[in-house]
Design a protein that fits this description.
The protein is of the alpha/beta class. The protein contains 7 helices and 12 strands. The chain folds into 2 domains: 121 residues, NAD(P)-binding Rossmann-like Domain (Rossmann fold, 3-Layer(aba) Sandwich); 111 residues, Rossmann fold, CATH 3.40.50.720. Helix content is 28%, strand content 22%. 33% of the residues are buried.
Length: 250
């Protein structure tokens, strides 16, 4: 059977994989959840919206005759990743996850960790400070319990209403760079950074900025690991698919 891939996307890595596959003439569809109003243009076919749980995804894999499933979703997208494991088993479709290694602290980093978003919010109890809250809009509600702080938010789409009482919202889409993030944190007199331990290069700039400015960072741990094949790079996915020979230049 010729290859016909489904990439679960919504990340920089998924877009990079789509580009590498398109360059090699591999048939692939990139799937978006539909959270972002205008996702970037892609060099492969795209589809948008949930599948209807693991069963729905398994049905899609069968109906669309998907030969390989690649989970390139964000490390914190726990539900779709669990669904992918279950659906691949139901449909008998080979699955690999493209997972960015988590960030680890280096010299000069002042990091603490929190097990989840709720714990990160509780850890902010105390006098008011200026916080760069580097989380997506779906995770902001937990911080309503700490309204004393001023929050700097960076969101992909403009919010319909202010998500927290005391906020500055910047609308921007990564990847970001360390010099610009350092200037941003400095301009907003940020004193603390709260982020998910997403890993990856495009979102790392805020950590480099925090290091440059000597700011404490609270990183939220990833959800529990799944039992599945995992690789760390686009080149590894190409190898898994048997396209490693054509991999020069990726
Ligand atoms: P989630 O909680 O794991 O998934 C919730 C539901 O959304 C899934 O059950 C599925 O619906 C649907 N879904 C999620 N990703 C999908 C995809 N790529 N294609 C089709 N349906 C998808 O996911 P999430 O954390 O809300 O993330 C949603 C999207 O945003 C993902 O594509 C992820 O890569 C991206 N993203 C997430 C984060 C984050 O911090 N969580 C950050 C950056 C980007 P059904 O059950 O109906 O199939």
């Amino acid at each position: 059977m010729s290859q016909n891939l489904l990439i679960l996307g919504g990340t920089t890595e998924a877009s990079a994989l789509a580009r590498a596959l398109a360059d090699r003439g591999v048939r692939a569809t990139l799937s978006y959840a539909g959270r972002v109003a205008a996702p970037r243009a892609q060099p492969v076919a795209t589809r948008t919206g949930g599948f209807g749980g693991a069963e729905g995804l398994a049905a899609y894999l069968r109906v669309e005759r998907i030969s390989h499933l690649i989970d390139a979703t964000h490390p914190f997208a726990a539900r779709i990743s669990a669904n992918a494991v279950a659906a691949a088993r139901i449909a008998g479709t080979p699955l690999v996850a493209l997972v960015r290694p988590p960030w680890t602290p280096g010299p000069g980093d002042r990091w603490t960790s929190a097990p989840d978003v709720a714990a990160a919010a509780m850890a902010l109890a105390g006098p008011p400070v200026r916080v760069f809250l580097a989380l997506g809009r779906l995770h902001l509600a937990a911080f309503a319990s700490q309204p004393q702080h001023h929050y700097l938010l960076r969101l992909v789409d403009p919010p319909e209403a202010p998500p927290l009482p005391n906020v500055t919202v910047i609308v921007a889409r990564g990847p970001f760079n360390a010099a610009a993030d350092t200037a941003l944190l400095h301009a907003h007199a940020i004193e603390r950074v709260v982020a998910k331990n997403a890993g990856g290069a495009g979102a790392q700039a805020k950590l480099e900025a925090a290091r440059a400015l000597g700011l404490p960072v609270m990183l939220i741990d990833r959800p529990r690991a799944l039992v599945r094949a995992e690789v760390a790079t686009v080149a590894d996915v190409l190898g898994w698919l048997g396209h490693a020979q054509a991999d020069r230049g990726v």
